[in-house]
Amino acid sequence: MLAGIVVLSSCATRNVADGRTGVDTALPTVPVMITADLVASQKIQRRRDGVQDIAPLTAPAAAYTIGAGDILAILVWGHPELSAATLNAQSPLISAAEQAAAAAAPQGFVVSEQGTIQFPFAANLAVAGLTELQARDLLARQLAPVINRPNVTLRVQAFRSQRIYVDGEVKAPGVQVINDIPMTLTEAINRAGGVTPTGDQSQLSIVRAGQRYRIDLPALVQHGEDPNRIMLRNGDVLRVQALDESKVFVSGEVVTPKALLMHSGRLSLNEAIGEAGGINPLTGDARRVFVVRRGQGPIELYQLDARDTGALAIAESFELAPRDLVFVDATGLANWHRTLSMMIPGSLTSAVSAGKQ
């Protein structure tokens, strides 16, 4: 941090290569002045960037398909002997203890790892990948040779084959099971108890088949997009990032240097300086308020002259980005005082005291 302050104070440039990323970390020799025109252009750019590509996540919801581990409830009307409960209780091949355990277990036909169920007169019936209606019709066709016009009811009794994972700043992170009601983004968050006060709704991510999608929920709503259009699928991972992962740092000649949390991904330069107590009236140089921004490319350096008319309005419209550094430089007199104090400790204080005598 000290090296960054020295560079800012002199507005010098130095070619420093980041060994991890290869990105040039040199500060520009001349900072970009924060003006009304710059704020307007950045607002247009933010509006463009705010249009999130959620098309891959908004495919129409399909009917639930049966998978391994699901439990099916099957009823053949007029043939109660074919129900799971009757078959378990009357089977002569299992012991009394096994019959008691079967009675306590969920009464239904469990889909095996191979995607099949064992049903009388239908042998190993392959139902994985079928909807309830498709599995019902398939079973009815298999029973037709032995039962005249079979009337079959088939329902998924327990949904266990499809799930998503919700992680991060939610009240109840963990596995969420997908049932016959389509799993939307808001449904998944609500099932997990909602976003915690420390969660950042502007920093959501969905990982699907190795691809990561960033979701800014407030911006999505602001642009007229319905979050319920985002459909989650089996195996998706939803993560809500913590607010403290998107901090802004305020240092230099402010009353209270500190790290600030953004508000739903938003924080203006004026708010950041205000929350730090404002520019120090004794040592701060209002002409030299800097914002250092490091994105994917080279470092960007911006400067605000807070003495100008309308500077506060401009600073209110200049939005900061996560991990920005706001630095207020010291006045020439303050720098001179500090330099002299380091070179000759106590000399300035002694001189002032002598002058008062």
TrEMBL record:
Domain of life: Bacteria
Protein name: Polysaccharide export outer membrane protein
Matches recorded under InterPro entries: Poly_export (IPR049712), Poly_export_N (IPR003715), SLBB_dom (IPR054765)
Secretion signal, residue range per the UniProt entry: none
Keyword tags: Cell outer membrane, Ion transport, Lipoprotein, Membrane, Palmitate, Polysaccharide transport, Porin, Signal, Sugar transport, Transmembrane, Transmembrane beta strand, Transport
Limits of the SLBB domain: 162-240, 247-328
Keyword set includes Transport: yes
